[in-house]
Amino acid sequence: MSNSPPSELVIEGQYYSGGSSLREDALLRSSGALLELITASQRRTLTWQELTISPRVGNTPRYLHLPEDGVFETTDNDLVDALGRRSASGRWGRLLHRLEHNLGLILVAAVVTLAVTAGAFVYGVPWTAKAVAHALPDSIAEQVGATTLASLDSTWLEPTTLPEQRQQALRAHFAPLLEPVSGQRLNVQFRDSPAIGANALALPDGTLIFTDDLVALAQHDDELLSILAHEVGHVAHRHGMQGMVQSSLTFWLIVMMTGDLSAFSDTTVVLPAVLMSLSYSRDMERQADDYALETLQLRGIDPAHFANIMARLSAQAESSAADTGDDSDDRWAALEDLLSSHPGTSERIRRFREAAH
């Protein structure tokens, strides 16, 4: 190479023809407007348009792609960079190489990546889930609701012990709020559930479940009506379907980021996803509270009924924790509130009590 003119570049490497896996020692020579590939079996002239230079990644071998699937491989990165400076196709490679070695740009890229990822989880996933949930046909919600109810009946729920007369009286009291919403018919079901205790559930198909313990806890039927208004809010906003879609999107985003399904079982990966999903649920609960408060006010029902039964539920939960000997301090209580899928109970009670004035 020492005999080559100053303007000439000669790069040593191996040539793969593309027609077989055999390789030959080769030279790639650049002189003026032409390129020349020289091997023991051939000597051919190439144009710059026929040459594609791979980007530089550290000091790994470079690949120069030639016509007819031919590839010229070399470890002489410096000469390839010099060749790239003569070729328009090498500009992107040089840019990529500079970016890879610029610490400032690497830090900026890391910050942008984190911001985009956070934005996808905080804003992108909820927005997409909401759009998909409202676009899905009602038949999907009905199928999901029926499957969910069957699963609950076989695990956590038992047949109600409420007398038939009491069930009919409550359904009659609930009737004004049971008009179809968001294309879903509303249907109240009563179940006993020692495992769940005093609670109410809204399924995607408009099935609203009240447990016997919740009915027993109420001191006025309007308290149960206020809980019903909250659960109807979930159906009106299609929260059941939205939550299902959201969970799926969150799962697949993490799988795409990690590239491994088994990574989802790693607590370092799962915990952020769980916290994100709970945050979404808190937003949904606030929307359902908004719906309930507006409904109660429009129908002239005192919002204090909701605050009263929520306060009783909160006291019951605290009593249950005390019975188990739980002496956690306020820091653990704060963590419990963070991990709760509902907004803080005291916040909700205060809001409805203020609305009652």
Describe the structure.
With 357 residues, the protein is an alpha+beta fold. The protein has 2 domains: 9-100, Pleckstrin-homology domain (PH domain)/Phosphotyrosine-binding domain (PTB) (PH-domain like); 128-356, no CATH class. The protein has helices at residues 77-85, 91-100, 103-135, 138-155, 164-174, 212-217, 221-236, 239-258, 267-298, 304-323, 330-339, 345-356; strands spanning 9-16, 23-31, 34-39, 43-46, 52-53, 62-65, 71-74, 158-159, 187-192, 200-202, 207-211. A 7-stranded antiparallel beta sheet has the order 4-3-2-1-7-6-5. It has a 4-stranded mixed beta sheet with strand order 8-9-11-10, with helices on both faces. Strand 6 and strand 7 (71-74) form a beta hairpin. The longest helix is centred in the middle third of the chain and has 33 residues, at 103-135. The radius of gyration is 33 Å and the shape is elongated. It starts with 8 loop residues before the first strand and ends with a helix.
Query: What strand line-up does the widest sheet have?
Result: 4-3-2-1-7-6-5
Residue share in helix = 55-70%
Count of helix runs = 12
Order of helices and strands: EEEEEEEHHHHEHEEEHHHHHHH
Computed structural class? alpha+beta
**What proportion of the residues form beta strands (DSSP E)?**
5-15%
Keywords: Hydrolase, Membrane, Metal-binding, Metalloprotease, Protease, Transmembrane, Transmembrane helix, Zinc
InterPro entries: DUF7092, Mito/Outer_Membr_Metalloprot, Peptidase_M48
Family: Belongs to the peptidase M48 family.
Protein name: M48 family metallopeptidase
